[in-house]
Structures are given as C-alpha cells and as structure tokens.
Amino acid sequence: MKIKVLPEDFIVKEKLDIEIKPSGKYKIYLLKKKHWNTIDALRFISKENKIPFEKIGCAGRKDRHALTFQYISVPREYDISFNRENVKLEFIGYSDDFVSPMILKGNYFEVVIRKIKNKDERIFQRLDEIKKFGFPNYFDDQRFGSVENEEEFIGEKIVKKHYNGALKLYFTTIHPEDKREEKERKKKIFELWGDFEKVLPLCKTKVEKEIIKTLMKGKSRHYLIEAVNLIPKEEMSMFFSAYQSYIWNRTLSTVLPYYTDLLKPVKGKIMEYLIYKTLSDKALNELKNLKIPTVSSRIPYVNSLVNNTILEILNERGLKPSDFDLKKIRKSFYKSFLRPAIVFPENLEVSNFEEDDFYSGYFKLKLKFHLPAGSFATMLFKSLTIYIANT
User: Which NCBIfam families does the UniProt record give (predicted)?
Assistant: First the structure.
C-alpha cells in the first residue's frame, strides 16, 4: 500500500481562525504549491518581492510531496506576487491579525491509498478502530528532515554547547535527496573541517561564507558562538523543533506500554513508532486526556510517569532541563507546550475500492478527514497499514 505516489494523492488544506476583511493591517494570501516545501517557497517569494523573510507570516510547514493550500500574511504596505509552475499565490483579503501557528485550527486532508492488492474489508474495520481509539500522535518523519540518525541532532549539540560539532553537522550532513555533486562537496568539507581557509572556497551561500569567515578569526568559544548565531532563524527553529519532537516521541513510546501491551513497532526515519490497535475503556479515557510537554528549561508538570520519563530520557542523552536555557543563542529558543498523546480524525470518510489508474491490477481508496493542528496524517496511514497484513 502506498501514499504520495502523486502530489495530488495527498491534498492538505489549512483551517485558520482568522477574519478576512476589506481592509486591515495585513494582506492575506493563499499559497498553493507542490514539489516545494514551505520554507523554500517562502524564501523565493521573499527574494523575488524584495521583502524580508521574517515579515512573511505562515502557520506551518507543509510537505513537498503533496498538493498543499496554506495561508501567508505580509504587512499591508508590501505588494507580493509569485506564480511558478508549481507555486501560486492568490490574494484573499485583509486582516488585523497575521498568520501564525497560534491561529491554525487544523488541516483537512484528502489522501489516496494506492497499490492495494485486493478488496480486503479489514481496511474498513481498521478505520473504524481508528475512529474509536484514535492513534498515537507522534511527530512523523517529516519533522526530522535535517537529521540522519539519533546521534546527530544539531539542536542537541547546541544545548550541550558543542558548538563546533553543531556547525560541522550544519555543513556536512548528507541527505538522501542531495545530488552527487552536493554529496561530494559535503564530504570534502568534512575532510577539511578545521582548516577553514580551505573550506571557504567550497561554500555556496552567503550564510556559509559568513560562518566560515567568522571561524577563521580564531578557535575561541566566542567565535564559535558568533558563528552559530549566524545560522538563519528559520533553520535554527527547525533544528530545535526536530530535537524537541524526538524527545517527545521517545517519551510517548516509553509511556504507551503502561496503558497497553498490544503494541506493534513501525520503522521510521530515525526511530521506531509503537502503535496500538485497540484500548481498554480505562486506557482510552486516560490517554484521551493525557498531554505530554515538549522539552525546555521549564517543563510543565503532568504526572510522575510522564515527567520522570522525560528526565530519564534527558539523563540518557547527558542532559537536564536547565541546559535548555540558551542565554547565548539569540535567534531561537526552546519553549515547552503540551501536545495530546493520542489524536482522533474528525469527519473521517472512505470511498469504495476503485481500480488503481497508476498501478495496473491493483486497487485504490480515498480518505477524507480533519486533524488538529500539528498532527500528522502520515501517522494515521502508519496506524492503518501496520495492522493490515498481506493487502
């Protein structure tokens, strides 16, 4: 079974709590895109319209492997336009509020599941179970795009004040989607790391050059901190979010066995996700009301199980909460928020089986549903498929 075979197989539409008016402080645009992630699209919009990146408001990052509809805002004094083959902007109106994660109510999804071998009614039974029992609200692999293994979090290196290690990862982490030339460039930088005069000619961007020129000034901690602070804010936020998400996921996977022992692991990019099929009434009621905090220097108290689990995971990583108070890092910070342990799709609809027009001899289904802000539709798919064997 496959999803995201075509961008149109995975449609995402934002639901915002915002009032559109004939006039207001901000202009609101609908950004329709595919084959682009949100940050890259906003960077190009910023550059082409000569508007500072930080002036563009958005509610969330959307995957490149999807057809997505999301909203952005700019102060009303700016006029922006951007129409490429796979990225289009449409002016919606004005608002007195800017677009941010604070006003994101959730997302509407239309997902096509392809390459289904036979018309197995267990798929419908499993979807009924997901309606009743929900599924674990893990951050899915998309959140870990900047990470290739559990020991290489730039966010963790910065918390540990391993600034040289963080910068080396920033320059040299090789991702599967990197082209051969880019992989070779990163390998060369890895080999030359520390000899920054030789690294400088290999730099591609203005930011890379500024960081290496700063490191060429000296090897003191002062210059390392100055170099780390040159990482753009949106990238730094992404690194910190990835590490918070990892610790949160580890917490949930450790806590879940206290509620049920009927768990199956599904492999993710950097960790396994434990997923249940059904829950007892007691476990369902408790998990429906359980919220797990993300890590920061001040972690809200939930209960002894959750909070002790977080402390144990941090201790295993050689950390404690106070380490997340980053006084010397200016562009981003770790802030704790509560996230539901499990999530329920709303208004879940499923089509009848149809012949797959992409994979000959197979079938397809279409799902429609809403999820709360921050929850991943791909986790619903993992929760569905792990208990449907031989389909």
Answer: tRNA_TruD_broad
d(CA 310, CA 12): 32
DSSP letter string over 4-48?
A: -SSGGGEEEEEEE----BSS-SEEEEEEEESSS-HHHHHHHHHHH
H-run or E-run covering 309: helix 304-316
Residue 110 near residue 3, CB atoms below 8 Å: no
Give per-residue pLDDT as tens, 32-88.
999 988 888 998 899 899 999 889 999 988 888 899 999 999 999 998 988 888 999
Q: Which of 63, 140, 141, 356 is catalytic?
A: 63
Task: Name the helix (H) or strand (E) containing 181.
Answer: helix 180-192
Annotated active-site residue 63? The verdict is yes
- The pLDDT tens digits of the residues spanning 168-205 come to 999 999 988 889 999 999 999 999 999 999 999 999 99
Q: Which residue has the higher pLDDT, 391 or 200?
A: 200
Predicted local distance difference test score (pLDDT) of residue 120: 83
User: What values do phi and psi take at 25, rounded to 5?
Assistant: -70, -25
**Tokens 């792990």 sit on residue:** 386
The candidate with the shortest Cα–Cα distance to 116, out of 373, 383, 352, is: 352
**What one-character DSSP code corresponds to residue 2?**
B
Q: E strand or H helix at 57, and its extent?
A: strand 57-58
Rg (the chain; Cα; Å): 22
Sequence-separated (6 or more) residues with CB below 8 Å from residue 373: 59, 60, 101, 104, 105, 106, 107
Closest CA to 276 of 298, 253, 294, 303: 253
Task: Return the pLDDT at 192.
Answer: 97
| Whether pLDDT at 14 is above 90 | yes
What phi-psi label fits residue 166: left (phi over 0), alpha (psi between -120 and 50 degrees) or beta?
A: alpha
